[in-house]
Amino acid sequence: MMRSAKLRRLHFLNALFAPLTGHALYLAEQIDAAITTSLDDTTRDERTPNDPAFVNAAATLFGRLCATQPRHGFFHWDAAADTAGADPLFARAGLMQGLKQLAPFDESTVLVTNLRSAHCPPDRRWTERRRRAYDDTLTLLRELTAARTRRGASVNVLFL
């Protein structure tokens, strides 16, 4: 059974804004309403969490909120921003840039978007080789975050 687009958006927003809202679903619903209202489109309720306009609006809002928090940092890496986002070397470089930026913070959030579509464009099929490369990249990014985060710091990595 497929969950509705609104429910998927709420889950995404609840996970993203959790450090600031404390997993309050009511606040996630308010944030969802604010973002979808700000997007000038007639298909507001049909937007999925991986819609680029929705993700950018959520990341911008979260980044602005984190800028007011002296202990919490935020970094958004979009794997589709360049043609090499699926390559592990460039994925590592993109994440390292964010981890360097987040080093002074005790708590931080890293949002990685479009990694899945960078590995397999929408007009292509998932092959065993693509799936293995995607899984290897996810593992690399998780292990890199664990290895390059200072002891005592808390980093939430969200893959969308």
Strand order of the largest sheet: 1-2-3
Beta strand %: 5-15%
Q: Could you tell me the mean pLDDT?
A: 83
Helix vs. strand class: alpha/beta
Q: Share of helix among residues?
A: 55-70%
Q: Any low-confidence stretches, pLDDT <50, length ≥5?
A: none
Radius of gyration of CA atoms, rounded to a whole number: 16 Å
Describe the global form. globular
- The run of helices and strands is HHHEHEHHE
- Sheet bearing the most strands, described? 3 strands, parallel
Counting DSSP H or I runs of 4 or more residues, the number of helices is: 6
Separation of the first and last Cα atoms: 20 Å
**Record field, number of beta strands:** 3
Question: Explain this structure to me?
Answer:
Strands 1-2-3 form a three-stranded parallel sheet, sandwiched between helices. The radius of gyration is 16 Å and the shape is globular. The longest helix is centred in the last third of the chain and has 21 residues, at 128-148. The protein has six helices and three strands; from the N terminus they run H-H-H-E-H-E-H-H-E. With 160 residues, it is α/β, with parallel strands linked by helices. Helix 1 (5-21) packs across helix 2 and helix 4 runs parallel beside helix 6 (128-148). The protein has a domain at 70-159. It has helices spanning 5-21, 25-38, 52-67, 88-102, 115-119, 128-148, and strands at 72-78, 107-113, 154-159. Helix content is 55%, strand content 12%. The mean pLDDT is 83.
Features of this protein?
160 residues, alpha/beta, 6 helices
SSE layout:
Elements: H1 5-21, H2 25-38, H3 52-67, E1 72-78, H4 88-102, E2 107-113, H5 115-119, H6 128-148, E3 154-159
Parallel strand pairs: 1-2, 2-3
Helix pairs in contact: 1-2, 1-3, 4-6
